[in-house]
Every structure is written in structure tokens, then in C-alpha cells.
Amino acid sequence: QAQLVESGGGLVQAGGSLRLSCTATGRTFSSYALGWFRQAPGKERELVAAISSGGITYYADSVKGRFTISRENAKNTVFLQMNSLKPEDTAVYYCAARGTSYSSRYYFGGDEYDYWGQGTQVTVSS
Asked: Does an H or E element contain 79, and which?
């Protein structure tokens, strides 16, 4: 059983940057596939970025070129670097994790993840 704790959210002006962190408990972090999701008020949760246990990444079209997902297994932490932020990026951001035997596979659906963080609010003002 893993627990995930996010940090790094906040209020930023459009065009600014934030770096989200998500730290997991447990000893099998290196075998986890990880994802960052977000949910804005009145909207469905959506996958923003994902990373396989082997470091292969995926980005939603809406954030491609602006966001970077990375992982540091030695610190049990996954990061989401967000640059050139837009008001439409405003949402609660969640990290998610699941164990996997496939080092090159990442996962798109929220129901494919076993562990979730509590969420961190990101607000981008215009």
C-alpha cells in the first residue's frame, strides 16, 4: 500500500511557472507507472502527463511543450514542471501510481491507477 503526497501548487500569473512534486511511501516506487491528472470545476478529470517505470513519457495535447513530467526514484518522487501557464490550466492536480511489470507502458485511465494523492490546487490568473 502506497501513500502519495503532492506539494507545490499555488497562485501564479499567466505565463508563469510552477513545479509540482509527489512523494510516495513504500519500497517499490521504481516499479510504478505514474500520472498527473487534473480536474477543473464542472469538468471531468483528465490525464495531463504520464511516465512509465522506464521513463517513457506521454503528454496531453493541451500541455505538450509546456509541461514536463519526470521522476527521481531515489527520492520516491515524481515531478510536474509547468511553464507558460494559462488560466485554463487552473485545476486541482492529482498524482497517481500503479505497479507494473512493463517498463515502457504508461496508463491513460484514472481507473487504471491504484494510488492517489490528495490533490493540490493550481490557480493561474489572467
From this structure: strand 77-82
Owner of C-alpha cell 519526470: 70
Residue with cell 513545479: 19
Backbone φ and ψ for 14, nearest 5 degrees, come out as -55, 135
Coil, helix or strand at residue 112: helix
CA-CA-CA-CA torsion sign (74, 75, 78, 83): negative
CA distance 112 to 57: 16
Q: Which three cell numbers stand for residue 78?
A: 515524481
Q: Give the pLDDT confidence score for residue 28 in this predicted structure.
A: 86
Confirm if 14 and 86 have CB atoms less than 8 A apart.
yes
- From the first residue on, what is the mean pLDDT of each consecutive set of 10 residues in the chain (126 residues)? 93 98 90 97 96 97 98 96 98 96 92 96 97
